[in-house]
Amino acid sequence: MSGRTERPPVDDAKLRQSELAISLVLRIGVSVSVLVIAAGIALTMARHGSYLSKLSYHAVTRPGTPFPHSFGAMMKSLERGDGEGLTVLGLGLLILTPVLRVAVSILTFVYEHDRAFVIITSIVLAILIGSFFLGGAGG
């Protein structure tokens, strides 16, 4: 005997439900974020026709071009109805999609009664969330 305890067999129906839930989160997250980004770009181009007339990527990305670089700036941009804020919101949703996927994974492991993976995935989620808060700490 190796001293390891045997895990109960995995219920195929539970496993399939878990995979479908994770797949759904990813598909919805990516789809919504792409739609929001596209709407933001369309709104930006509609309000700033000069971007289209120059046909240059640099016209939009050059230093000094106003673009929200913080959550507060994004919210103010959204309040004004600016496309730039909508684009940043879409990018934020795209970034948060895999984080939400990890959170859903924790719930599926709880549902499957797999304590080891609940603990491991919870640590991964804590690291992901911590990285968002510590990412800007270096200046």
Describe the protein's architecture and organization.
The chain has one domain (12-133). 76% of the residues lie in helices and 0% in strands. The protein has 6 helices and no strands. It has helices at residues 12-47, 49-54, 57-61, 71-80, 83-111, 115-134. Helix 1 runs antiparallel to helix 5. 11% of the residues are buried.
Annotation keywords:
6 helices, elongated
Count of folded domains: 1
General shape: elongated
Structural class: mainly alpha
Number of helices, where a helix is a run of at least 4 consecutive DSSP H or I residues:
6
What order do the SSEs take from the amino end to the carboxyl end, as H and E?
HHHHHH
In short:
This protein has 139 residues and is mostly helical. The chain is built from 6 helices and no strands. The protein has one domain.
Furnish the topology, listing elements before pairings.
Layout: H1 12-47, H2 49-54, H3 57-61, H4 71-80, H5 83-111, H6 115-134
Helix pairs in contact: 1-5, 4-5, 5-6
